[in-house]
Amino acid sequence: MSAYPEIGEQALCRPVPDGAFARYSARPVRTLDDFQKVVAIRAAVFMAEQDCPYEEEFDGNDFCATHFVVFDGDSPVGTLRLRWFAGFAKLERVVLLRGQRGRPALQVMLAEAFELATRKGYRRMIAQIQARLWPVWSRTFRCRLTADRPRFWFSDFEYAEIEIDLPEHPRALAPDSDPMVMIRPEGEWDAPGVLDASVARTDRPDVAA
């Protein structure tokens, strides 16, 4: 992501520490190579540490979601998944390698993910968290337990549902946004993309794709 995620950061309980964005960076997955990083990190933590079966961890939703990877320098150290529904987004599969837990990598990744969600116009997000981790998540981003929703179990853990209120982005994308902005790579809407460059090849710039 190219710009500082100042809107996404507002959804966190505490500002990202000084210097964290110089060390860590996070971006949406756009290539097979980055997706392989997602698979490797999740396998290392959810399958190896938590003994989650392969078919439960890779549940059929990965190719219809947006993934983020966070890097410590050039090394991938964490990932999360976002799925999109009418009126809300769903935060899933948030994970860091063991050596990164408690460090700013998580805040950087969440700030970037929340920035993308708010830029898409989302104001509400839900997540299903391991119930034992509620104290951790409640101190990480601005969230609340969803009222009147019972706890539930799957993959050998007890879960609770939470809601995250997202701030309004002043430049949220809308149906009447510039069409050339809408076709740029996910999360890179402010930088000209390859299709912007293709406009110079035609003498009829008013013709839509």
From TrEMBL:
Domain N-acetyltransferase: 24-185
Gene source species: Hyphomonas johnsonii MHS-2
Protein name, UniProt field: N-acetyltransferase domain-containing protein
Tree of life domain: Bacteria
GO-annotated molecular function: acyltransferase activity, transferring groups other than amino-acyl groups
